[in-house]
Task: structure prediction
Amino acid sequence: MRPLLSFDDSPVRDQLVTQAEQMAHRLNQPSAVSILATVIQRAERDEGMRRLREEMFGRADEDLTRALATAVERGELRPGAQDHARDLVARMFGPLFFERFLYGERLDDGIMAGEVDSALAPWLPSG
Result:
């Protein structure tokens, strides 16, 4: 299993858009939805599944925190963005899971740039 997010040295916004589009594509696969739903459901009572869920989702906060800190150092984002990694993950990826799991809608990766931009907007440098 790959972690939810992984980063390199390119601009953080571009990486997040690409990864959100990839996530949307994966979530449109019926088998992926089945696997994720099973892992999430079984993790409530099975230690092995909790570890698998942690492997899949748990490092996203830490990895995004580091990427956001790097983006702050490069002037892409305002200081403090790195302290809100969990909130940013929820704002960017929460709508995907909601649309796919609760509404059963197929995801259009064309909307992902807007989700990422909306989440990052409060942290963009002014001027």
In short: Residues 85-102 form the longest helix (18 residues). The mean pLDDT is 89. The radius of gyration is 15 Å.
